[in-house]
Design brief:
This protein is an alpha/beta fold. It is built from 7 helices and 7 strands. It has one domain: Rossmann fold (3-Layer(aba) Sandwich), CATH 3.40.50.300. The structure holds guanosine-5'-triphosphate. The site of guanosine-5'-triphosphate (GTP) has 21 residues, from helix 1. InterPro entries: P-loop_NTPase, Small_GTP-bd, Small_GTPase.
C-alpha cells in the first residue's frame, strides 16, 4: 500500500473513492500522482486492487482519503469486484483520450456502479486522461466526454497524469472530497432532526398532561 502520510489522528473520517476505467487508461498513474505528487515512471497492470491513502483537512475536519485503484482488465477484477463497491463514497471514471474504445466503455462502468447500488447521489467525476498526447481541438472524444459528463451531471477534467501538476490533481480529488463532506453534513442534520423530533413530542405530551380541563 502506498501512503503519503504516516500520522493518522485519533478522530479521522475516511472517504473511500474508487477509480474505474479500462486497462491502461492511467488509473494507477493518476492515483499515484495524487498521493505521492509524482508520475510513476513504471506501472504494472493492476491485479485486483491497489490502495493508496492521503490525509486532508477539509473545513477543520481531518479526512483520510482512501483511493481504490481497481484493475481495468476483466480477468484481474473478477475476484475483487464485490469488495470495490462496498461503502463507496465517490467514483472517479477515467478514459484515455487516445483510445476511443476506453471512452465507449464508460457506460458499462456506469452500469456496473448501478448494479452495485451506487445511486446518482454518490459524487462522481470524469477524467479524460493523457491530454499530453493529443491536440485538443482535433480530438472528438474530448468533446464527447464533456457531453457525457454534462448528461450525468458530473464535473469533467481534461488531464494528463504525466504532464499535469500536483495542484491540478489536488483540485480534482479535493472537490470530490468537499462534495462528500457536504453530503455527510446534510445527512447528519437529517439524522439530528429525526432524533430531536420524538423529544419535542414528549414535551408536548408532558404539557398536555398538566393541562387542567375544568
Ligand atoms: N503519455 C501519457 N502516458 C500516461 C498517462 N497516464 C498514464 N500513462 C501511461 O499509460 C500506461 C498505463 O498507465 P496505468 O496508470 O498503469 O493504467 P491503469 O489504468 O492503471 O491500467 P490497469 O492497471 O491495467 O487497469 C503507463 O505506461 C503509463 O505510464 C498520461 O497522462 N500521459
Amino acid at each position: 500500500m502506498d501512503s503519503c502520510e504516516f500520522w493518522v489522528p485519533a478522530i479521522c473520517r475516511t472517504c473511500k473513492i474508487i477509480v474505474l476505467g479500462d486497462a491502461g487508461v492511467g488509473k494507477t498513474s493518476l492515483s499515484h500522482l495524487y498521493c505521492t505528487g509524482r508520475f510513476p515512471e513504471k506501472t504494472d497492470s493492476t491485479i485486483g486492487v491497489d490502495f493508496r491513502e492521503k490525509l486532508l483537512q477539509v473545513a477543520g475536519e481531518k479526512i483520510k482519503v482512501q483511493l481504490w485503484d481497481t484493475a481495468g482488465q476483466e480477468r484481474f477484477r473478477r475476484c475483487m469486484v464485490q469488495h470495490y463497491y462496498r461503502n463507496v463514497h465517490a467514483v472517479v471514471f477515467v478514459y484515455d483520450v487516445t483510445n476511443t474504445s476506453s471512452f465507449r466503455s464508460l457506460p458499462l462502468w456506469m452500469e456496473e456502479c448501478q448494479q452495485h447500488l451506487l445511486g446518482p447521489d454518490v459524487p462522481r467525476v470524469l477524467v479524460a486522461n493523457k491530454a499530453d498526447l493529443v491536440t485538443v481541438s482535433m480530438n472528438p472524444t474530448i468533446e464527447q466526454g464533456r457531453h457525457l459528463a454534462e448528461v450525468h451531471s458530473m464535473p469533467f477534467y481534461l488531464f494528463s497524469a504525466k504532464g499535469g501538476s500536483r495542484e491540478q490533481v489536488d483540485t480534482i480529488f479535493g472537490k470530490l472530497v468537499q462534495q462528500i463532506s457536504r453530503q455527510r453534513g446534510k445527512k447528519t442534520e437529517i439524522v439530528r432532526s429525526i432524533k430531536l423530533r420524538p423529544k419535542a413530542n414528549a414535551v408536548e405530551e408532558k404539557k398536555e398532561k398538566w393541562t387542567c380541563n375544568c
